[in-house]
Specification:
308 residues; alpha+beta; seven-stranded mixed beta sheet; four-stranded antiparallel beta sheet; 8 helices; 25% strand; elongated
Amino acid sequence: MRVIFMGTPAFAVPTLAKLVETGHDVLLVVTQPDRPVGRGRKLTPPPVKQKAVELDLEVFQPEKIKTDEAFERLRSLAPDVIVVVGYGQIIPQRIIDLPKHGCVNVHSSLLPKYRGAAPVNWAIVRGETVTGVCTMQIVKKLDAGDVLLCRETPIGENETASEVMERLAPMGAELLVETLAGLQAGTIQAKPQEDEASTYAPMMKREDGLIDWTLPAREIHNRARGFDPWPGAYTLFRGKRLHLGRTEIAEGEAPAGAIVEAGAALVVGCGGGGLLRASEIQVEGKARMRAADFANGYKPAPGERLGS
């Protein structure tokens, strides 16, 4: 097929590579402009652009996709399909209507659940044990188009959002190629979504990561996993922000936010029952460290409270 690819993050890279590998004619790669990154604010191309350059594909980086210039650039290429994976801008209707097979999106949830910007994160936060990827036709309403194909995968009890995304990215690539073959052959039966069964996964905010120690340990653990790597799960310790890295649930009871043990893991009481164990710690302004190094350096005392 003659394909225009629209995507930006690392999650989209395997799909772009798979399109080229399987012989599709990628006419153009549309991605977000280069942005300043890190403390040095160095102008950095998005992962999709880096891969496109490696594959010797033409790249287009409009600040806004809804302009006449952008529309004419895409229209002139006469694509059979536009593939969208985490592009980061709303696709205007006139672009949706351009290709014969429409705009096909790879979405990292089992639609209609978790429509929105952060489906994997919120699925984990809300305690889901299964997730997956779907391909769907893009329509004007957010993530509400007809579903083409889906594939499920379990979520491990201690698996983080970034780890799940690493598994879903190649799954999405395989599913997209399978979807294009089905569209070309006319063998795919698109299925309308049930709006009443939909849930929403909004863009995350920094304050989402603030730990409420009155919650049960499992809920805090899910939030720590779901908000990895950003905004992370954090609390206050001696007036400084303290990020908890990898966490686990342990049996026992202690007052909410009270340190039970500080050694190979930092063990903290949770108000709704259970204990939370964190094996990695990051103190504000410092590099991430093992819990044992944190204990040796800061010597937190049993009973000392986090969160105030």
